[in-house]
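User: Write out your own:

AI:
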Amino acid sequence: MSDESLNRKCELLSKEPEIRFAGFLDMMGNLVVGSFSDGIKPLKNEDERKKMFIEAVLRIRTRQDFDDNLGPVEYAAARRKNVVTFTFLYDDKVLFISAEPNVDIDKTAQKIMNLCS
C-alpha cells in the first residue's frame, strides 16, 4: 500500500472526534505517515513518541509468536489515565492510534477497522 493511501487513511481517522493521533509505523518503529488531529497538543515529545512506537512494534512482533495456536490479534488497546492507545497490524505496517481516555475501546476499535477496510 502506498504512503499516499496510508496518509489518506490517517486523514480520515483524524476527523473522528475521539481520535488524537493516527499514524502508520514500519516494522522498525519509524513513523511512515501520520499526525495529530487539529487542535491536539501532544502529551509526549518526539523522542518519547519514538520510544513508544518502537515498543508498540515490538509488542506486535512478540504477539505474532502465538498466532498459530491462538489466531492473529485483531487489535491491542491500552487504557491509560490520559489516553487510550490502539495498535493494529496492517499489511507490513502497524497502525498506531491514540484516542481520548473516555472512549469505548471495542466500539472505537471497530470504527477504526471499518474506516481502514
